[in-house]
Amino acid sequence: MNLIVGSTGMAGMEICRLLTNAGKPVTALVRVSSDPAKVDALKAMGATVVRGDLRDPQSLKTACQGVSAIVTTASAMPFAYNPADNTPETTDQDAYLGLIAIARDARVQQFVYTSFPPLQAAFPLQDAKRAVEKELRGSGLNYTILQPTYFTEIWLSPAVGFDHPHRKATVYGTGENAISWISFLDVAQFAAASVGNAGARNATFELGGPRGISPLSVVRIFEEAGRKPFDVTHVPVEALQQQLSSASDPMQKSYAGLMIGYASHGPIDVGSALNTYKLKLRTVEEYVRRVMSEPAGV
Q1: Of the candidates 60, 73, 61, which has an alpha carbon nearest to the alpha carbon of residue 19?
Q2: Which residue ranges in the chain fall short of pLDDT 50?
Q3: What is the pTM of this model?
Q4: How far apart are CA 172 and CA 263, in angstroms?
Q5: 194-212 b/e (C-beta count within 10 Å ≥ 16 → b)
Q6: In degrees to the nearest 10, what's the CA dihedral of 183, 26, 206, 176?
Q7: Distance CA 225, CA 81 (A)
Q8: How far apart are CA 198 and CA 214, in angstroms?
Q9: Which single residue of 57, 224, 232, 244 could bond 256 by disulfide (Cβ 3.0 to 4.6 Å)?
Q10: How far is CA 10 from CA 66, 72, 78, 147, in A?
């Protein structure tokens, strides 16, 4: 049995779909507060739904019984953040450290963990990811650590200032550095293909799309597709550094740190990962064509 933690998230739902389509049994951990429509969709896929919470050790102990592999995508960010009880420290660090211990006690055979590549700034989400990676490598569990770079569907969307429906884009830094944007659908491909994969055993893979493209080049791709110019606003790195140092809220600090990484990030060499996984990756151009063809408001 394969336990998916974060099963109602973007990547988590897709991982469940890929595994069930491949005939692999899936147990989807869902919270009591999870969207009922998503829970119903998981059941329709053929997943076994169990109620629990990454921050509830007892529910994890129950969910891990008889599990051979755990695949994790759950995070307090970007959508589930709650300063009272769902933060990078409580969820992305402490809860995951607890899950690793529970998985070890339950003799889980493989732990697939979704992280991101190391970035230059220190911030709560990165601190949590690095702590969990360190614990996992020393846990004695067979692990696979996936480190995807910036998700196309988030970082090239209005959610973080790339407002393509209104032909506006906020660019962090100069926008001239190449970023290996990756679709969450491809992250899900890597995660699902990690299960039972001997080549992924005790390995860490930095993941990106098929090529690096600068944010300004992405703007030009959108402009060519829509045949209309974009209004581009630049946020200097110095402003982001000031935001990071002055923010007290963990989510604000983490977003500032991620944006600083965006401003300086280089392309990912995904060759090693593709040698192991043999997957075809989606391109930024494919994403642009898809979202530009969607009706307004979708």
Answers
A1: 73
A2: 298
A3: 0.95
A4: 5
A5: bbebeebeebbbbbbbbeb
A6: 20
A7: 34
A8: 35
A9: 244
A10: 26, 12, 11, 16
Helix (H) or strand (E) holding 234: strand 231-235
What's the confidence (pLDDT) of residue 298? 45
Question: Under a CB-based contact definition with an 8 Å cutoff, are residues 270 and 180 in contact?
Answer: yes
Distance CA(2)–CA(16), nearest Å, equals 9
Of the chain, the end-to-end C-alpha distance in Å amounts to 36
Nearest partner of 177 among 206, 211, 212, judged by Cα: 212
Residue 26 phi/psi, 5-degree rounding, is -130, 130
Q: Which residues contact 286 (CB under 8 A, 6 or more apart)?
A: none
Sign of CA dihedral 6, 8, 14, 18: positive
Q: For each of the domains in the chain, give its residue range(s) and CATH number, in order of start.
A: 2-293 (3.40.50.720)
pLDDT of residue 83: 84
**234-237 own/partner pairs: CB under 8 Å, 24+ apart:** 234/170, 234/171, 234/172, 234/173, 234/174, 234/175, 235/170, 235/171, 235/172, 235/173, 235/259, 236/173, 237/172, 237/173, 237/263, 237/264
DSSP lists the bridge partners of residue 168 as: 163, 231
pLDDT the model gives residue 180: 97
Q: Rg of the chain's alpha carbons, rounded to an integer?
A: 19
Q: Which two tokens stand for residue 84?
A: 């009272």
